[in-house]
Amino acid sequence: MDVSALGNDLSRVLYTPEEVQDRIAALAAQVDEDYAGKDVLLVGVLNGAVMIMADLSRALSIHCRMDWMAISSYGSGTKSSGVVRILKDLSTDIAGMHVLVVEDIVDTGLTLSYLISNLRSRNPASLEVLTAFRKPEALKMPVEVRYVGFDIPSEFVVGYGLDYDQRYRNLTGVATLAPHVYS
Ligand code: XMP
Ligand code: MG
Description:
With about 180 residues, the chain is an alpha/beta fold. The protein has one domain (about 20-155): Rossmann fold. About 25% of the residues lie in helices and about 35% in strands. It is built from 4 helices and 9 strands. A 6-stranded mixed sheet has the order 4-3-2-5-6-7, with helices on both faces. Strands 1-9-8 form a 3-stranded antiparallel sheet. The structure holds xanthosine-5'-monophosphate and magnesium ion (MG).
């Protein structure tokens, strides 16, 4: 779905589909270089990372495996609940593996720091994070994100996997949501 299809539900287009795809190609090139000769497991965080996983993995020239986790940190609103629960765990034993966590967005970083300490306790050979989007708040967290698609302002954004109340994930671009939609 194109961002223009949504009329005044969206207040501002942040990135066009072309800009998103160009950035992902650049990230994939870095991942290719950094993981050359290594077996990498991409761990996608459901549901938002579905789009970036699909595009990133296909842009890679190296082999990769893929697995998924589902954790909950947000309700249907736009504020973090601070509660993190594992809804679906990995099917893979990651001990000794090179793990690259693939996220849609890092906002406060609460979700990610929980996820990282959880995965670290399983003794992977290496553990890094790639996120499509990152908000400024995340920089306050001690969690290091190795690959960042775009640093964006602290506004609620939708598209490219990001939802409001489970909708808008299928927008090919990324836009800010008009306040009248959620207030
Ligand atoms: P924290 O604050 O733990 O949150 O880093 C990460 C999760 O919060 C959701 N999130 C958003 N979802 N538009 C969205 O659709 C946004 O602007 C946004 N900011 C945070 C998202 O689920 C992410 O995984
Ligand atoms: Mg998420």
